[in-house]
Amino acid sequence: MSLKRPSELYKHLRVSKRYILGKSHDDIVTSLPKDEDAPELESRLQFHKQFMIGAQSNRAGLGSNRKVQDADILKSFIRQDENDKYKIHAMNLEMQNEWLDIGDFCIPLALKWRTLIYDWSPALLKFYLNAFQMTLPDQSNLVRWGKSTEKTCYICGKAVGTAKHLLVGCKVLLDSGQYSRRHDRVLEVIREAVSLSVARAQKGITTNERSVGFVREGSRATKSNVKPYSILKAASDWTIMMDTYEKQYKIPEDICASASRPDIFLFSRILKRVVMIELTVPWETNIPKDHTIKVNKYYELTKRTHSK
Q: According to the 3-state scheme, what is the secondary structure of 224-267?
């Protein structure tokens, strides 16, 4: 939603103001008292310029001489300090700290104004935000809020009825296929997107391989009107198979004799290419573990299809 924390925005404005005033040739302006954290920030800036400025930490490329303003460097320090402060605060929370264990698998909250106004119903938005903040009215929270005295899951009657248990961990719901049907509804959306991509690609079939444009030293790259290469455009015989709770498929034996069934399996006999898509709808803290399980599960299938 492109919203900034007020404290961070305020510090950014103070840094910008100080940077502008520091360029003044008026002795009265330059003699104005500095902020309390100004000496520390300036010391970090000098260290950064002396030891770190030559290291490439972005996509500018080797030999790039693009200069970074001191104010931008100072703002990056403030942003880093603010993020560290909120991480330390999150570590001390009892419930809203699970995302710290996810690491690189952590997916930031992605909400746009269009989504809030047009795409989502008030009920869906309410559920999403409460689930994100761990404030859904599950059994454990109702007890915590003094609204109930029973923590046990009302479905299985065994485990504590937390949101995590109800959404991904209840054995009764698992055995009844509720989780699988939810998984299949998400998978159907992905399949429709893949089918649409294949259909669009068929309108402009091309066998041109992806080209790499080199730029001479001292010259600038020019934008090309050539559309990016897509493997879907290179053949017209793509077949899509989807594995669901109620309907399973079997990989054709001429492609690979295997009992494995990725959620979505695309193949082209003309190209002798396959594309496998595997979906998991886990609790956030289970993402690293489930990712490893899926990679290991289809490692042998991937290896065998590569050898074909």
A: CCCCCCCHHHHCCCCEEEECCCCCCCCCCCCCCCCCCCCCEEEE
Tell me the residue length of the chain.
Answer: 308
**How far is 61 from 137, CA to CA, in rounded Å?**
50
Please tell me what DSSP assigns to residue 217: T
List helix spans (H) across the chain.
6-22, 27-30, 38-47, 70-91, 113-114, 122-132, 139-144, 163-164, 171-175, 178-202, 287-297, 299-306
Q: How many CB atoms lie within 10 A of CB 140?
A: 22
Pairing between strand 239-242 and 264-268? antiparallel
Per the listing, tokens 């939603």 go with 1
pLDDT classification of 12: cutoffs 50, 70, 90: confident
Sheet holding 273-277, edge to edge: 239-242, 264-268, 273-277
CA-atom Rg of the chain in angstroms: 27
| Residue 51 DSSP SS3 | helix
For 182-236, what is each residue's pLDDT tens digit? 999 999 999 999 999 888 887 765 545 555 667 776 677 676 665 666 788 888 8
Pick the residue with more confidence: 233 or 63?
233
The beta-carbon contacts of 220-227 under 8 Å, at least 24 apart in sequence, are none
Whole-model pTM over 0.85: no
